[in-house]
Structure formats: C-alpha cells, structure tokens
Here is the input.
Amino acid sequence: MDFVTQHPVLVVSLAKIVGLMFLLMTTLAYLSWFERKVIAHIQSRWGPYYVGAHGLLQPLADGVKFLFKEDLTPPGADRFVYILAPMLALTLAMTTIALIPFGPPTVQWLGQSTLIVADSSIGLMFVFAITSMGVYGVALAGWSSNSKYPLLGGLRSSAQMISYEVALTLAVVGVVLLTGTLNFNEMITSQSGYYLHFIPRWNVVPQIVGFLCYFMSAIAETNRAPFDLPEGETELVGGFHTEYSSFKFAMFFMAEYANMITVSCLATILFFGGWLSPFPDSWTVMRYLPPAGLLALAVYLAYDTVVLARGIARIQLIVVTTGALVIGLACLHPVVLTIIQGPFWFLLKVGLIMFFYVWTRATLPRLRYDQLMTFGWKFLLPVALANLVITALVKVWPLLVNHG
Amino acid sequence: MSIVPISYYLVLSAILFGLGIVAFVFKRNIITIFMAIELMLNAVNLAFVAFARAHDQLDGLVFVFFVIVVAAAESAVGLAIIITLYQNRQTLNIERINLLKF
Amino acid sequence: MSLPFIVFFVCAFLAVLGALTLILAREPIHSALALILVMVSLAVLYLLLGAEFIAAVQVIVYAGAIMVLFVFVIMLLNAGIEERTDFSKLAKYAGLPLGMFLILFLAHWMAHSLIGQQVANGVAGTNVSVATRDLSHQLFQTYLFPFEATSILILIAILGALVLAKKDE
Here is the structure.
C-alpha cells in the first residue's frame, strides 16, 4: 500500500484507464447492436432478435465470427503498413476518451480527480490533434492494399476527412471565444447557471449555428451517412477496407464507432453542458432520476423475463434485471448518488446524440462525392467563419461602443 | 528550468539536423529530399523550444509557431511543384531531372 | 531515473530511429511514416519542455496536415522504390564518414555551448507549462505584424499550389 500512497497519480490513472478501456470496448460492441436495432425499427422490422433476449448477445456472436474468419493478406501488399493501418486507426480513436470529462472534478479518490483521465489545460486542442491524425488510418489502409479501388476509396475518404476537419475546428472556435478557455471542465462550469431560473445556460443557445456546423462536419469527419460514399462503396465496390478481413476489419469498424463516440462527447461538452444537469439544483427531486430510471428499467426487464419463455434468453434477462436492480438500489445511497449525477447526465446526452447519428443514417440518402466536397468547402466553411466573426463582434462590442 | 538538462535537447536537435543533412545529400527521390528538409526544420524547432525553456521566454515558442506555418506554406507549394515536375518528366529521380530545357 | 528522463530517452530514441529510417528506407511511404514518428516524438518532447500549445500545433499542423499532404502526393504519384544504385565510391568512403563527423561535431558543439554548461537541474525541479494565454498575448501584441504577414503568405501559397497543380487544359 506504500506504493499506492507514494504514487497516487500513477495508481489512480492506471485504474481509470483500465476501467475506461473495459467500458469503452463494451460500449463499442453494444453500439453496433444499438445501431442495428434503431435502423431496424425505423425500417419497420425487428433487428437482432434471436441471439439472446432482444438480440443483446448479437455483438458477442459478431465478435466470435470476426475472430474465426480467415485472415488474408492481399498479394503484393506492403505488410508493415497493412498491419499498421487498422491498429493506428483504432488506437487513435480510443485515445481521445482519455481527455473527456465524465463528471465534475470534485469527485476524487486519493486526491486525484476520478472522472477524467487527463485534465489538460488545452484538452480541446489535443482532441483535435488526435482526430487529425486519424486520417492516416484510412489513407494508409487504402494504399497498402495494393489494389486500385481501395486506393481511390482511401484517398477520397481521407480528402473528405481533412476537408471537414477545417470546418469542424472553426465551428468550435466560436465556443472557445465565448468561454475563453480550452480546458473541458472550465468550459462545462462556464455553462452552469440558468436563464429565467430553469432554462440551462448551455452553449447551444448562443452558438446554434456553430452547433449545426459542428454536427454536420462531425458526421462527415467520421465517414457516416449521409457522407459515407467512401465507405458506402463497400456495397458497390470497395472503399478503403476492401482487402481487410476478420479482426483487422473489426478494428476499422470499432475505430469508426469510437470516433463517433468521441465526436458526440465533444458535442456534449462544447454545446450541451457536459455533465451538468438540465434541472436546477433547487429541484432536488430530480437528483433521484438516475436510480429512478434504473429501477424502471429493472421493472421492465422483470416483466420481460416473466413473459419471455425461452431458456437462455430468460437466464440472460434475469442476470440483466438483477444487475439493473442492484445498481439502481446502490444509487439510492447518498455518496453514490452524488458520484453518479455527472456521468449519468453526460452519458444520457451522448446517447441522445448517438441516437441522432443513427437516425440520420437511416433517414437521409447518400451524398455524391462532388456534392460532399462542395458542401464542405463552399457552404460549411463560410458559415463557420461567419459564425466566428459574428461571435467575435458580439464579444468585443461593449469595448467598441465604450471607445467610440 | 527543466528536470532534463537543456543540453540533452540541444544534442538531440543537432543529431536530427545532421541526419537531415545526410538524408538531403544522399537520397535520390525528390519527395524524400523534401522530407529531409522538414526533418531539419523540426530539429531547429526543438532547439528553439529548448532555448525558450532555458531562458524562460516565450519568444522562442512564437518563432516555432511561425516556422511551422512557413513550413506548411512551403510544403504546399513545393509539393505542387513536384507534381508538375512529375507530370512533365515522369520521374522523381533528381539525377534525371537535370535539363533546364526539356 | 525519474519519469522525465525515461520519457526523454524513449522519445529521443524514437526520433533518431525515425530519422535513420528516413535515410535507410527503400520506399518513400516508409520514409514518410518515419518522419511522422519523428514529429510525434518531438511533440512529446515539447510537452516535456512545457510548451503544450506548440506540441498540439505540431501534431495538428505538421504531423496531421503537412505529412498528410506528403502521403497524398506519394500515393498519387505512386513514387516507387528508390532505385538501388550503389553509392559511388567517393560517396561511400568519403561521404558517409564525413556525414557522421558532421553529426558528431554539431552534437559536441551544442553540448558544450554556453547554455549546455548550465546543467539546469531546476530549483524546484517542477515543469511549469507555458500558459496559452501568455503565448497568445505575445503573438497578438509583440508579433502582430509577422502574424498578419503569415496569413498573406498562406494565401499566396494556396494560390500558388492551385495554379501549379492545375492540369493544362
């Protein structure tokens, strides 16, 4: 225990990283389930249904399938770069989670803030640095496959990513102007407070244009529909991951979901108040929303357990119900209740944005490549710039008026 | 003052700069030569940041900022020139590109 | 061997490894990847020196945009394997040793320069980072004219690249 007390930073950081990685990998797997279910329901069908209750074991089945597929390397491919590309994509996508604050820095263990792994004073810039390196995963994957279609798909995809990166960064600078800091926790605390005592003072209200620009750029940056021509070519020809099979392919898809999560987390922090509750602190009954939600979920799952009569599904549902019940009851304890407030609201907001992502995918048709590039350079970039200029003017207006 | 002595950073900067010069002189592919130039610029940036820390001034960092910006502009134009050169001479070997008039 | 020293030596090793790979690689794409490795390890070294904004700018601009440009051009032009023609005798027997001498000479001179002799182990040994606010004050007050001049420079570069890379139609 001496080691623990002598190196609190190291121990707490390692614990946080291990916990976060575990949570992240599970979330990535279940995000594919979530997406398939939502798209299916939008398309009036059921989605994954048979593998485990409500299809909840589907990601497990997919993972096993990926592991057992044959792992081919195309002939003439550059081996080193071929193996490096998916690893690079996945590693970079997962690294940004280290900078995301899941709750207020007041929650501490051993004197270190527990709910963020790296509370950097320029956290926002580091997130952009890591996402700008994500272009390499795609470009190198296309190149190393030694085939024309992946090369062109990879080049197109990376050109799209670097184009929308500019609009993404400019859309966010408006928020930085308003809050005056690049630190995530300070940005969130500057969004506390309420207009008229009950409308939260989130950045989405003054920066609505910035938010819309950011969100559209984010969808394009992560190669998701309706901007997924380089990836949607999968259905037709290839795209940068044609020649990848089994686990490397799974790595690319995990990287895409991880990028989605990162971008949603950023949107929550910058525009929607991060871990702040939308209800004022004076409404204390709203503090019991997390345990209430979990217990309601447990009741619904219990009902499902009784109604569903299949063997394995029933056992699985009993496990999940017990889990939800235990966590829900644990949240009623005051200490756990204060800890759970921040992450609960944060994850709820991120989940809503991810739902919107999937909804967009199921609803909108794909953009053609030249329409995509035109949209990025000729519409989003000028709008983001205009937003920046107007925000700067509004910020500086009192000084100008006082001077002249 | 930093924990790692500043001279260590300067030696690293010198080694990288020297390796950049060696790459610049010995390589034959234009793009690789261009990358050696970027390596030399990076080595110089490291020296600037080390000196900024040593003297506790910010001017070194501002200069690094400008070096990065100028390197960006220079690479954009340089690579465009290389593309044009490739389109005209169909080779990237500098020993073959030795005629002023084609 | 405290943590800053370990980080320094790991990053220095990676940087020199990247530079050597740049020289010795047969394919330009490997040289480009090696250069990216150098840039990222230099960014970590900037962090170690307390210049966090510059580290972020280095990764965003240098490693994340300029090198992407390089990689694109290598892919577009399909720059093949570096022709393996042997070095001329002069280069091998005189050039390489002279190159090594140059590197060692520079390293020695830098190590024994005036700054190097101040073996700065630090009064408190703490690494105080430079605040972005102070850096931006310098950038927008003392160095405002160079800042605006670089914006014109970038504009000229964009125009130049566009004009040069257009196909003659």
Remarks:
- The first helix of chain C runs from residue 3 to 24.
- Confidence is low (pLDDT under 50) at residues 119-125 of chain C.
